[in-house]
Every structure is written in structure tokens, then in C-alpha cells.
Design goal:
- The protein starts with a helix and ends with a strand.
- The protein contains 9 helices and 13 strands.
- Helix 7 runs antiparallel to helix 9.
- The protein is of the alpha+beta class and 503 residues long.
- It folds into 3 domains: 249 residues, no CATH class; 81 residues, Signal transduction histidine kinase, dimerisation/phosphotransfer (DHp) domain (Helix Hairpins, Orthogonal Bundle); 149 residues, 2-Layer Sandwich (Heat Shock Protein 90), CATH 3.30.565.
Amino acid sequence: MSAGGRLFGSVRAKTSLAATAVVAVALVAAGIAVLLSLHANLTDQADQEADTSAREVALDIASQVPARTSYADLDLPDTEEHPVQVVTEGGLLLVAGEDLERISGTGVPGVRVVQSPAPQPGDEPGDDDGDDDGDDHGGRGRGGDDPAVGEIGEITDHNSGSATVDGRTGDYRFATIAVTDGSGRTVTVHAGASLAARQSAVGTATVAMLLGLPVLLLVVGGVTWLVTRRALRPVEGIRREMAAITASEDLSRRVPEPAAHDEVARLARTTNETLTALEAAVDRQRRFVADASHELRSPIASLRTQLEVGDAHPELLDVPGAVADTVRLQRLAADLLLLARLDAGERPGPTRFDLGALVREEISQRTLDRVPVTVDIGRGSGSARSEGIEVAGSRGQLARVLGNLLDNAQRHARGSVEVSVHRAPDGRVVLAVADDGSGVPEAERERIFERFVRLDDARSRDDGGAGLGLAIARDVAERHGGTLTTVNSPTGGAHFQLTLPPA
């Protein structure tokens, strides 16, 4: 992989890019929300200004008593800031702001007064001489909601539009209000407020955000990069040390553990615990290979010697001895093969069988035992005598466990060996093998389950075996979800207890 690929494929780069992307999305969303809010607030402000301007013009019209005969002298606000139109109910323009050249958004396009008719004597209030067809061109329609003489109504509408004043065109918000002058004629006032402030503020904010966003994203990405690099520095140290351990094959080395109590520190501690377990497993494997080689060497050497002597002197061939060495070699090979399968993770099958029947069958085949074996099936602490105590697993492997425990008891018993099978109060099945021998010292009760361990070092190999029986028995028990422990027997010897879950 190229340097660029490693860079952009690293956790640090991915974290920085992800943080930058998240911040970018958040900032864009927040910016849009701010611009929309600013736009709405400034539009409302323009509406209020248009309302104020419209009310001021309407108030001026309503205050003219007696009736105004001409609107030409009406005091209008600055047209560039607040363009104004005053129209009749029929849409006839009465007056417009000075220098107003074009307007849209009020519904009345006129900006030049064609005529300004005065009310005639006898006209009904609200009657408009300029347009009698009732056509509404943007002014207020006729109806009973018109204000009384000399009064102004409520703001009825807000619209967006544009106006050209003295050659300059701008956007405006227009407010509409009705007022009845002293003659009883109702007119409509359209007054606008410039949106230049809104456009300027929104434009300035947009430019500031567009310019500031990349800078802020660079800052966020840079800070995230630096913080991530600092946070992952211990991980890089762990990686380098693991690479060095792999290259040197020295499992005694350990990765550095940070002083902090964070995930990286826990990773380092877990890595060291894994290395410790791996070192112990490798050492155990090495000892196993060495001990197996040592154990195999003795019967092979003895068998070879006997065969060489027999070849040179047939009359001196010790056939029973050669057979015994061959049998011992065969048993040792079978034990090593079973241990290899167990170490490889072999699991027992789900076969159900009666453990009591298995015990009776195995003991009935042991006709050459030195010490007689008594069997008790179904009696135990807190349980009544029962038959058919079933377990699930490998019948052959559990028979091997029973055989190994009986072989161990036969080697050490003085005069009796007892085997019992019962169900414990918690429902688990217990197989116990007890003898009246010298027992197992409390300090050695775990060590005897290690491979190739024999407590009596002075014992001959032919009589004592290779020291694999109890190790195999415990491994098989654990593969069946059970336990194998030893305590002192009531008769003074060793008491091995195999506990299994019921089927």
C-alpha cells in the first residue's frame, strides 16, 4: 500500500475527516437557520416600518377637516425610503411619492396622477366619481367595513414588491390601510419600506459564513488530527512492540502500559495478559514435547535393546518384556493423541447414556486389578437411591476418565477402592473414586493434574506410568462442562470427585 493510502486509511485520518464532515453539516444547517431567521426578522422589521409609514399618511388624510379637495399637497415621506400611493376604492390614483417612476406589489401600477376628483355635493359617502364600475384594481373594495369619516382602518395586507425612484430600483415591503377623509370618501394608502437593510445584512452574513466555514473546518480538522495523534500514540507504541515481539519471537517482552485509565490502557493490559497466557501456553507446549520425547525414549530404547539382543541371541529374547514395552508405548501414544485432540478443541457429542451402567460395565472388565473395587450407584448426600443417572457427552472419553482414576487408585490403595455415582442436591451428577492409600498432600492437589507430573519421583516408570492420566481426566471433564477435584478420603486416602451436568 502506498504512503497516501496508509495515511488516508488510518484511524487518525478517518476520525479527522468524520469530525470535519459532522461539523460541516452542523455549521451549514446552523448557517441556513440563522439566515432564515435573520431574513424573517428583517422582513418583520420592514413590515413594521411600512405599517408606521402607512398609518402616518392615513392619519394626515383623516385629520384634514373640512374635506380635502386635492391630495397634491399631502405631506408624504421620503419616496426612496417609503414609496407611497393613495388610491380611491375604484383604483384611481390620487397621489404618489415624488420621483416614483415604477412600482409593483401594490396592485396599482400607476405613478402619475391623471386626475384628482373632488367629491360632489350630494354624493354618498364612499362614492367615487373616478370609477363607478366597481372594478377593484388593488384598492379596498366597497363594503360595510370601511372606516367612519375621519377614521383609519387596520392594516389589511403586506406584500413584497419593487419600486424605481429617480432611476434606482429596489425591493420593498408594502402595507395597505384604508382611511375615510372629511368628505366621506374612503381611500386606500399603500406605503412601502425598503428591504435594502435586509438584503445587506443577509448578504453580509452569507459572505461571512462562506468565508469562515472553510477556515473553521480546517481548524476542526487540524485539532482533531492532533488530538487523535496524541490519543493514538500509545497504540502505535503497542503496535511497534508487538511487531518487535513477532520478529524476535521473544514472548517474555511486554507492551508499554499507559498511566491513564482509558481504553488504550485497558488494551495494553489485555495485550500483556494475552502475551502472558501465550508465553505460558508455548512453554507448556515445549515442556509437553520435551516430556513426551523423554517418555517415548525409554520404552523405545528398551524395546530396541531387547530386539537387538534377541536378534544376536534368540535364546535370550525377553518376549514378555518386549510386549510390555510395546503396550506401554501404545498407551503413551494413545494418551498423546487424545491430548492433541483435546488441545485442538475437540468437543464431546450430545449422546445421552446412563453413567451408572457405564461404571458397572467398565469395572466388570477389570479382572486383573490388584485391589477389589466396590461400587455404589445412586447413594449420595441428600439424594435417594436411584437408577438411570444420565449424562450427555462422549461415552468413550468418560470411560477413559474412569479408567485413569481407577488405575491411579490401584497404584496407591492399600486394600480397598470404592466407586460411587449419585446425584447432588443441585442436580449435578457426581462420580467419585476413593482409595485407602496415602492420599494427596494439600499443596499438591492442583499440581497432580499437570501433564507428566508424578509426585513419587523414586517410583519406577514401569509401575507409575507417564503422568498423563489425571491431566487427561481433567481435560475431558472440562470439555464436558464439569470439574475434577481431589480431597482427602474418609478412609484416609485420595478421593477424586468428577462432577458433570445432568443430561
